[in-house]
Write a structure and sequence with these properties.
The complex is a heterodimer of chains A (343) and B (164). Chain A is an all-alpha fold. Chain A has one domain. Chain A is globular and about 60 Å long. The two termini of chain A are 35 Å apart. Chain B has 164 residues and is α+β, with helices and mostly antiparallel strands. Chain B has a domain of 108 residues: Alpha-Beta Plaits, CATH 3.30.70.3270. A 3-stranded mixed β-sheet of chain B has the order 4-1-6. A 3-stranded antiparallel β-sheet of chain B has the order 2-3-5. The longest helix of chain B has 16 residues. Classes of the chains: A mainly alpha (343), B alpha+beta (164).
């Protein structure tokens, strides 16, 4: 492939991934509301369109029509920069996550990942930790004590959970011997899923992912009962919507990362032994990936409406005294497996 | 007085969270799968039982005459002063009939006293609960709106007979 073909294919992939993500985000909001309603014996939004399927568009329209308020005491450039940062981080992280095997389109061998880079995992870790800046900026620049508290909590939470997250990922890297997401997926062929080989690492990673995406039970930065709205107290209109979108986009990324690192990525166990045609193989693989991500997204929402929020000291205790040693233990376990059984 | 120590020591299984989290998750999942009680109102309407006290109506006999003899007891008993009756004379066997019978639905408190006091079973509470008006004049219901054929009120009348 020459450079122009690579650019065109990349652009097409970017557009597809971006559209799919935006649509998924809007419908995640809808499903969050429906599922929360079901969990509480209600019906949820079911008025706009058939069973409320047009609700996300109505929500966006409403938010667009709202007044955009910037407080007098706010630092205006940073106040505006914060939601932009949040969205930027949320949508660029997806670039390195593979959603299917290599496919042949018009005679070209195209990998189904926007950017097949050999340090993909580092890229994801770097960008997701950038996400905390968005929240801290928002909290600091709003000039409100509630927002500031939310921002500070967020940074403290990120620091504590980034460590256990990093060590859990290290376990995966030991098995795959590569930082390329594609190679990590390949290393989990059959039932050799990392979730099965290293269950402790899986649990610590999932918990850290919840903390990194600021989802309940770790949504201390926004903690409505104590901090009004946390870091987005002083935001309205589309800036608020920006944070909202970023939160749900982060959920998708977290789910996709969990799938890639621990649940075999786009691989359907032993699909290559069924002797299917290349096209069918690719379609089933992509569908497998989507189903796995959808199940995890449901899990994220399900957990949110089941578990109460952690108190701040409990959160820190859990992060430093439980998650951190557990992830280290997992690393030792994987190193043992690699040394003795050469997996 | 000795203060009782508040029990907050968790057991080992509670401390590792996971089983408790699974318990919580299974509870919400059970709730998700339960049938919902909410009615989709404008499409799906609540049909009350015979004991329901909705809008008071006048009973109209099969031959099109009202049962009411304009005795004015309902108007006397009405705590909200919502009923106004003016009697008139007819050549029919019953001799008296209400020339004007008005219930102000903004005043009515749906207590059912009018129905209880009525000697002729002429005013009963219906199942109609959809009462909304654009102005105050519309809220005063005259005989044209109050008269309801007796066959539509059968279960309420039977309910009254068995419990009065």
């Amino acid at each position: 492939m020459n450079i122009w073909e690579i650019i065109i294919f990349s652009l097409v992939k970017i557009v597809i991934v971006f559209t799919v993500m935006l649509l998924t985000v809007s419908y995640l909001v809808y499903f969050e509301r429906r599922i929360s309603a079901w969990a509480q014996n209600r019906l949820g939004p079911n008025r706009v369109g058939w069973e409320g399927v047009l609700q996300p568009f109505a929500d966006v329209l409403k938010l667009l029509l709202k007044e955009d308020i910037v407080p007098d005491v706010a630092n205006k450039p940073i106040h505006t920069l914060a939601p932009i940062t949040a969205l930027f981080v949320a949508f660029t992280t997806y670039a390195v996550i593979p959603f299917g095997p290599n496919v042949t389109i018009f005679g070209f061998n195209v990998p189904l990942v926007v950017a097949d880079v050999n340090m993909g995992i580092l890229y994801v870790l770097a960008l997701t930790s950038l996400g905390v800046y968005a929240i801290t900026f928002a909290g600091w620049s709003s000039g409100s004590k509630y927002s500031l508290l939310g921002g500070i909590r967020s940074s403290a939470q990120m620091i504590s959970y980034e460590i256990s997250m990093g060590f859990s990922v290290a376990g995966v890297l030991l098995v795959a011997e590569s930082l390329r997401p594609e190679a990590i997926v390949q290393a989990q062929s059959g039932w050799m899923w990392n979730a099965i080989i290293q269950p402790i690492g899986f649990i610590t990673f999932v918990v850290s992912a919840f903390a990194e995406t600021n989802r309940l039970p770790f949504d201390l930065p926004e903690a409505e009962p104590e901090l009004v709205g946390g870091f987005h107290t002083e935001y309205s209109s589309m800036k608020f919507a920006g944070f909202f979108l970023a939160e749900y986009a982060n959920m998708i990324i977290a789910s996709a990362m969990i799938v890639t690192l621990y649940l075999g990525g786009w691989q359907f166990p032993y699909l290559e032994t069924f002797g299917l045609s290349a096209t069918l193989f690719a379609i089933i693989s992509v569908l497998t990936f989507l189903v796995k991500v959808a199940v995890l997204l449901f899990f994220f929402i399900w957990v949110r409406w089941s578990i109460p929020r952690f108190r701040y000291d409990q959160l820190m205790n859990l992060g430093w005294k439980v998650m951190f040693p557990l992830s280290l233990l997992n690393l030792i376990w994987v190193a043992f497996l690699v040394m003795v059984f050469k997996i | 007085m000795a203060v009782k120590k508040r029990e907050k020591d968790l057991t080992f299984w509670e401390k590792i969270y996971i089983p408790e989290i699974v318990k919580g998750l299974s509870l919400t999942m059970k709730n998700m799968l339960k049938p919902k009680f909410t009615m989709k109102y404008p499409e799906e309407k609540f049909i009350p039982s015979a004991s329901y006290r909705g809008r008071p109506v006048l009973v109209q006999e099969e031959n099109g005459e009202e049962r009411c003899v304009a005795c004015g007891l309902c108007s006397r008993v009405c705590p909200a002063l919502a009923i106004e009756v003016q009697a008139g004379e007819t050549d029919r066997q019953k001799e008296r009939y209400p020339q004007k019978f008005e219930i102000n639905m903004l005043r009515c408190i749906f207590c059912g006293f009018c129905e209880e006091v009525c000697p002729e079973e002429a005013i009963v509470m219906s199942k109609d609960y959809e009462l909304a008006f654009y102005n105050r004049e519309d809220a005063i219901y005259g005989k044209d709106k109050l008269l309801t054929p007796v066959n539509q009120l059968q279960d309420r009348i039977e309910f009254l007979r068995s419990y009065k």
